[in-house]
Amino acid sequence: MNTEEQKVALLRLHLLEKKPISDLCQEHNLSVNLFYLWQKQFFENGAAAFANAGRRRPAAEDAKDRKIAALEDKLLRKNEVLAELMEEHVQLKKALGEP
Fold first, then answer.
1. Which of 8, 25, 45, 46 is in the most buried spot, having the most CB atoms within 10 Å?
2. The domain boundary residue, chosen from 49, 66, 81
3. Same domain, 45 and 10
4. Residues 67, 38 within the same domain
5. Which residue range is the domain that position 29 belongs to?
6. What is the 8-class DSSP label of residue 74?
7. What is the rounded CA–CA span in Å between residue 91 and residue 34?
8. For residue 24, how many other CB atoms are within 10 A of its CB?
9. Number of domains in the chain
10. Structure pTM?
């Protein structure tokens, strides 16, 4: 009984069908401690089952996010070019002796 699906099936038998843990462990040659470990892991990671479950973002939102990212990149490049030009301007003023 090693696969995730098998573990969930056993947990389901206990939690939903009220099958005693001792019976399940005896039938499947498991230790009770191992079963409780699986149950603990199941509940600790249960929130992951609901994370983004069935929620698909509309294509328009994805396109909008891509466009925003592209515009942010473009703005960053422009700011870098502007900073470089300003640095050159300052260097030229110093070279010409202007304040």
1. 25
2. 49
3. yes
4. no
5. 4-49
6. H
7. 72
8. 19
9. 2
10. 0.50
